[in-house]
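Sample intake — 4-hydroxy-tetrahydrodipicolinate synthase
Collected from: Paenibacillus polysaccharolyticus
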Amino acid sequence: MLTEQQIQGIYIPVITPFTKERELDLPSFQNYIKVMANSGIHGLVINGTTGESPTVTWDEVEQLVKAAKETLSSINSSVPIMVGTGTNDTASTVARTKKAAALGADAVLVVTPYYNRPTEEGIYEHFRMAASVGIPVMVYEIPARTGVRVSIDMMKKIMNIDGVIGLKDSTNNLDLMTELVRCGSKPILCGDDTFFFDMLTRGAAGGMMASASINPERFLEVYNRFVADEKEDAYRLYTQLLPFIKNLFEEPAPAMLKHLLAQQGIIASAQLRLPLMPASEQLKAKIAL
């Protein structure tokens, strides 16, 4: 199982490839996993936002986890697998977390409960219950999608729950990052790709970034230069990546991401599941590999 010490580097929230009929495309998924793992990334996250989790069934998640584990085993890779199990229902989240543990996941990613707008005490209990399952829990805070922003004081409390090993921070709130690091909190991964370098300078242990699916070596080089104390070089490389990152998210993800992966021949189709739509021709023309 994943430890706090392993929460560092570049984690990739993976896409879920579909056929033209919008069924799972496991051969494409396995090829994609192989390419990502061979690049040198530090971890994979299945069934996150980038994986179109709202439209993927739990049966399909199980197929994806099994396929990923088989692929990693075939190339003798020890890259850890994290599985998104968070919902806005604590009982459902606990049940999914137990199933992920039974599948052999190394950790789970649990998002702050969304839509029903619970109190902070309810949010704390949600994470406490998820962590009680016994598999390491990575907290995912993304208020732009959940409609809930956890206070700094409550996040400190959540980070002290036994079994919680870190935070994916997509808040765009550098004060949260700074305060958690100051308090010696558990590892934090940047969840907003455009803030990657800024968060590294404030103590983030790395990033969990969708854009790193496209030529992940470039993101690894930024991270490796930074930890080698070659910060000027890291910043230069990051500024070269920034226009690409911003363009990638100009339209809802992972539309453009899938288009580029299909263009690279890593997956067979850029198909998404409704209500998500393909990337526009204007955006495709704007981003050239």
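Post-analysis note: The chain has a mean pLDDT of 96.
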